[in-house]
Automatic annotation (TrEMBL):
PANTHER family: EXTRACELLULAR RIBONUCLEASE LE-LIKE ISOFORM X1 (PTHR11240:SF61), RIBONUCLEASE T2 (PTHR11240). Residues 1-23 form the signal peptide. GO terms for biological process: RNA catabolic process. This is Uncharacterized protein. InterPro entries: Ribonuclease_T2_eukaryotic, RNase_T2-like, RNase_T2-like_sf, RNase_T2_His_AS_1. The active site is at residues 72, 122, 126. The lineage of its organism: Eukaryota, Viridiplantae, Streptophyta, Embryophyta, Tracheophyta.
């Protein structure tokens, strides 16, 4: 009986040592990870604004582009991996009926006629990830309030950065936004022929989209000098 008891103790000690060894190897990410509660499967939120004239210089648009940043989305994200949300409530247009006029102005689709389809896609691709914290109405309302609070055109103008056909350094754009918000954004750019255009600016927010935080490093723009176009080049 004593021999059986000690054998069980030795087996238990061996299993504990084996688990510790695994956690010191390539499996450490599994051992050390703490499952996030089902209510929130993301760490922070990107608030993404796009420069309409860059979008429409890079692809055909169905609506006239203006010299403005408009909302592209509010995207829950994770520091460790791509955020994936496979379930959640469907988009219900009547839930945001009181916001439609503002959304049409601040969150239009430049490449689709129907803005509602655009909002539906944004909600079902991104918004459902934050549904436990930001239900549908709160999600769209939060984006509108952020757009009003952080006017990128005004923020850049404070550092004499305008859509003028001039070229500005990515660092100066980043610094202008950091000066105004206290934190660095992410800058996205794309080439039009051989001209790097500023296309999108990502502000990073805490999980409930109430406070700006520092964005993680990114490789969204590989160019140092960028243009903010003031018109369509083919015009």
């Amino acid at each position: 009986m004593k021999g059986t008891y000690w054998r069980l103790i030795l087996i238990l000690i061996f299993q504990l040592h084996l688990q510790a060894a695994l956690c010191d190897t390539e499996f450490s990410n599994v051992c050390n990870s703490v499952p996030k509660p089902p209510a929130r499967q993301y760490d922070f939120i990107y608030f993404v604004q796009q420069w309409q004239l860059s979008v429409c210089n890079l692809r055909s648009c169905l609506k006239p582009a203006r010299q403005v940043f408009s909302i592209h989305g509010l995207w829950p994200a994770s520091y460790s991996s791509k955020t994936q949300c496979n379930c959640g409530s469907e988009f219900v247009p009547k839930k945001i009926s009181d916001l439609v006029n503002k959304l049409n102005m601040e969150w239009p689709s430049m490449i689709h006629e129907d803005n509602t389809e655009y909002w539906k896609n944004e909600w079902e691709s991104h918004g459902i990830c934050s549904e436990a914290v930001l239900p549908q109405h709160a999600y769209f309302d939060a984006a509108l309030k952020l757009k009003q609070k952080y006017s990128l055109v005004d923020i850049l103008a404070q550092k004499d950065i305008y859509a003028s056909g001039n070229v500005y350094s990515k660092g100066s754009i980043t610094e202008a936004i950091k000066t105004a918000t206290g934190h660095s954004p992410q800058i996205q750019c794309k080439l039009y022929k051989e001209i790097p255009l500023l296309t999108q600016i990502f502000l990073c927010l805490d999980y409930n989209a109430t406070k700006i935080i520092e964005c993680p490093p990114s490789k969204r723009c590989q160019y140092e000098d960028l243009m903010i176009p003031y018109s369509l080049f083919n015009n």
